[in-house]
Amino acid sequence: MNWIQSISCFKPGEVIAIDGKSLRHSYDRGGDKKAIHMVSAWATSQRLVLGQVKVDKKWNEITAIPALLKVLELNGSIVTIDALGCQRSIVKSIVEQGGDYVITLNNNQSSLYARVKELFEQAMRKKYSGFTHTTYSTKKESNHGRSEIRHHNHVK
After folding, report:
1. How many angstroms separate the Cα of 37 from the Cα of each of 23, 28, 64?
2. Strands 146-148 and 141-143, how do they pair?
3. Which residue blocks in 19-146 are alpha helix, DSSP H?
4. CA torsion, points 36, 44, 93, 113, in degrees to nearest 10?
5. The pTM is what?
6. Neighbours of 99 (CB within 10 A)
7. Closest CA to 102 of 137, 154, 50
8. Domains defined for the chain, CATH in brackets
9. Taking a C-beta distance cutoff of 8 angstroms, is the pair 72, 50 a contact?
10. Are the beta carbons of 131 and 119 closer than 8 angstroms?
11. What would the pLDDT profile of 87-113 be if each residue is shown by its tens digit?
12. Neighbours of 38 (CB within 10 A)
């Protein structure tokens, strides 16, 4: 971690992507060895892995994320995590360390999902009148056989 900190130069707004991946071909079917699964923190603009935690199973990511966050310097950064990391304790840890977050919200957290959906629907009905918001769209990207334009709305 000290070496990573010595070679990295963080700027405000640095995006740190937290994600779990199974390492390809790390299993041994004959020896009944399961694939290695890691949760990593990736500094996107620097293209640098800031830290990793090995987990027993994919579903143990939820316990590895807080451990990984504890060893990172998050002040001024934006942490992104998939829906598995949509937990109060994880968000609290990011904020306490001075970071911001973008976390995917799936319908499996039904009451939170319903409240967020209603907030956005209400903002759109009112054409964002009375809401603090920002809007951002990416340019057209063509990757992996598909074309995408992403639209982002942030409502407070």
Report:
1. 6, 14, 11
2. antiparallel
3. 61-70, 88-96, 110-125
4. -90
5. 0.74
6. 20
7. 154
8. 1-104 (3.30.420.10), 106-156 (no CATH)
9. yes
10. no
11. 889 999 999 999 999 988 888 888 999
12. 18
